[in-house]
Write a structure and sequence with these properties.
Blueprint lengths: L24 H5 L2 H15 L1 H11 L4 H29 L5 H15 L9 H25 L3 H32 L3 H13 L1 H17 L7 H18 L2 H9 L6 H20 L1
Helix pairs in contact: 2-4, 2-9, 2-10, 3-4, 4-7, 5-9, 6-7, 6-8, 6-10, 6-11, 11-12
The protein binds fe (ii) ion (FE2) (2 copies).
One fe (ii) ion binds next to α4 and α7.
Length: about 280
């Protein structure tokens, strides 16, 4: 939690409400690629305090946004990390999560710097909408592809939180956009830039460390890393809610309904290409 000014608000749900003892661990273990993806997500979520600190600094002049980031957004993201970690540790009791997270964090801390933020506030809020679209759709895909019921429910719950974050950032974007009036091409550029860039680095960094810990005894093996990553991609690709992703990405562009209908199908194709990539 960011020091000082803000106390956390009540969470929409609590990790303690989830019955991790009810997990069918043997069944869950059969979905190894999915578990590796869950572990990767748990690392990125658990590092939310770094991003939150950067963002709160960026929006320091806006008490409304910084209070929401510190009181709601950061505690909710950190809770996602705790819940996903608890899931992984229940299913793989031998998985050394703290060691894997420490290795991840040493890399991730370097990727996640205030310089990554868009200097124009409305454009940073567009970037946040892209990131929340990414997480909302990824957790929806995890929920759809999981066979184990606790993970299905947990991922659906987290996906709903991410949609809530998206809505909040989108409302803030509209507020800033009224004053800053970034042109549609600039908004589109910020959107595409974020879509192609940082998020992938986050996910890849998480996956690399999730896999490294799982196969620690076997030593580094680039071919295995590629093979496991390909299996995870295939899994996400099959369950990914492309329409939902395209709809959320289009919103900040504020296109007239007729134009939005026209560009939606190619955007769905582009999203498929990105997820396939
Ligand atoms: Fe999250
Ligand atoms: Fe989020």
């Amino acid at each position: 939690m960011t020091p000082g000014r803000f106390s956390p608000a009540p969470l929409p749900w609590r990790v303690e409400d989830i019955d991790f003892r009810a997990i069918d661990a043997a069944a869950a273990r059969e979905d190894e690629p999915l578990l590796l993806l869950v572990a990767a997500c748990s690392f990125v979520e658990s590092a939310a305090h770094v991003y939150a600190g950067n963002l709160i600094g960026h929006f320091a002049a806006d008490a409304r946004i910084s209070a929401w980031l510190a009181r709601h957004w950061e505690p909710e993201e950190l809770q996602h990390g705790r819940a996903l970690r608890a899931y992984v540790e229940r299913v793989w009791p031998d998985y050394d999560w703290p060691r894997a997270y420490a290795a991840f964090f040493a890399d991730y801390g370097r990727l996640c710097t205030p310089e990554d933020l868009e200097p124009v506030r409305s454009l940073e809020l567009v970037a946040r909408c892209v990131v929340e679209t990414g997480t909302a759709t990824l957790y929806r895909a995890i929920s759809r592809s999981a066979r184990e019921p606790t993970l299905r429910a947990l991922a659906a719950r987290i996906s709903r939180d991410e949609i809530g974050h998206y809505r909040h950032f989108h409302r803030a974007f509209r507020r800033y956009q009224r004053a800053e009036r970034s042109s549609r091409p600039r908004v589109l550029r910020a959107l595409v830039h974020r879509l192609l860039d940082e998020r992938r680095e986050d996910a890849e960094c998480g996956l690399r460390h999730a896999i490294a810990e799982r196969y620690r005894g076997a030593g580094p093996d680039p071919a295995r890393l590629r093979a496991v990553t390909a299996r995870i991609r295939a899994l996400v690709r099959n369950a990914f809610p492309y329409e939902m992703g395209a709809g959320l990405l289009l919103k900040p562009l504020g296109l007239p309904a007729r134009v939005a209908r026209l560009v939606r199908p190619p955007l769905v194709l582009a999203a498929r290409w990105i997820v396939l990539g």
